[in-house]
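ok so dumb question maybe but i'm new to this and my supervisor (M.) told me to 'just get the structure for Alcohol oxidase' and walked off. so i did the thing. is this what she meant?? sequence i used:
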Amino acid sequence: MRNLYQSFALLTALSSVASSSAVCNVGSNDPIAFSKISLDYLVIGGGTAGLAVASRLAEDTEVQVGVIEAGTFHRDDPLIDVPVNVGLTEGNPLYDWDYTTIAQPGANGQSFAVPRGKMLGGSSGMNFLAWERASQPEYDAWGSLVQDNTWSFQGLLPYFRKSATVFPNQTNPFPGLPPNGSSAAFNPEDEGFSGPIQIAYSDLYMDPVFPFVQSLNNIGIPTLADAEAGNTTGVENSRQSVNRAQGVRSYAATTYYCRSVDQTNFHVIMNATAHYLQAFRIGFQNSSDETQLLTAKSVEFTLGNDTYTANASKAVILSAGAYNTPKLLELSGIGNATSLESLGIPSLIDLPQVGENLQDHLFAPVQYQVKSGITTFDQFRINSTFAAEQAAIYNSTRAGFMAASDSAISFLPFQATTNNTDVDSLLQLFNQTVADSNASPLQLAQYDIQGGWIRDGTVPQMEFILFSRGFVNLGPNTSYINILGGGLHLTSRGSVHINTTDALVQPVISPNWLSNNFDVAAVLEGLKFALRTGSTLPLADLIDIQTDPEPDAQSDAALIEYIRGSVETAHHPVGTAPMATRVVDASLLVYGTSNLRIVDASIMPLTVAAHLQETVYAIAEKAADIIKVQS
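this is what came out, is it supposed to look like this??
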């Protein structure tokens, strides 16, 4: 997000905070020994999905499981562990792949930072902690697209539950809840109580949070008692992936990795960059012969200046994420044959959809300076006494505002923010955008589903997030809030492709943001509703001045100009190796292979209106069961 959060320095507090994320051993990092292990399963990428699937596979003590991870384990690192520090690792190459997009014509030619976690635990170690499940129709749409009903809300529900443990004895303090709603989110039919990831409500809330919720209530937006049950329309108190007892982030490294690291059949090599997959052909003649399958046998990787090869007998599992998974497929000869051969890479399987179908969420921020005396997270920036006091509280109790972060989030369909005439206009614009596009069969199937959602109002199209802090152009001794409003189910589809055979070079990331009129209109609707929320009581009583966009930018044309210059990504990339024809099947097998599977957000055929980590963990949990049965 343009590294907005780098301005939020903790000054004296950061240097004095001790973290305690896990009492966890770190295994050997000997690449020679790792390459000599007779692995059954080899996972490329020790991130959110990779560690989860590897840990579950290693529950079978008869198999050997290996993981190749490019980053390291940042154990007891306050930049990762301390909840208030969300965002501070973005753009730091010690934690982040530090990738950027190519220039985006729809966003005034800007290129954008697109942070992805380069560490053990991946992006689960750098996300903003939100633990959310999308609506039931969105997961059911996956089942429709892949013609497999196990990829549905009910089919995924056991895996949502399996990944998490809900912190007990908490109540939801948000305004507007129905009777008995404060504890409704602890339904054992929806929630997990024995999974690795710890989730909890925040214990403390900054001053603007409850007025934000009340303003939405006053507009007519309900407060959700249980946003995990399949209906997400409303405003919710998003639980967070935080171990509330310890006051630290709960993520894949401190949970899935730590639960398995002492097992003799679980092996992780860190600081190792995978180059490509090597394959052994079994009578493989050409990619059009569907009876001849390619079998992945090994992966080449580097650590330091040396190159090694790791072997696997049962399966190679790509869990490198929506940017690096298509990159590794293409480096290995799996992708668009014409493009690969132009780089001198022999085509093993011609799969033109690899690297296509990139989707993300887009936001436009509204920033307000709040009145004096309103406490926000900016106190850490402007008040050294407050910061020191909070550091002392955190070090002694693992509580206080350093153990907190913002959690007020609203997911809404267009029908909740505007009138039926405007909804009809948005639907017409959507239909015209689709008609004017050169859409693939997968995209046409997606658009058919998306159009129904817009028409029926059954699935959120927009998200609104309150951040109790300032992002840009911050004045001394002043506090701010930001309301991010944006579009979730957009029509633009981007791509991720290599343009070199050098595995150390980032892929070309072209998201095509704001490339058509519907997407611009959807983000505009989100921006206008964010502005409406800020001008509604009681939140309006906290606000001194609006700083972004300029208060005189009131026409649609002026707001669109602001959007093109200020749009942000939510860093939720998905879909670049989707469950779709001639890419990945419902068993997560890459088309044309017998044992190469993909387990990460790239397999999602259609994005969901939610922050992604809960969904990615569920994908990994489901994948582990599939692989155990089929290998």
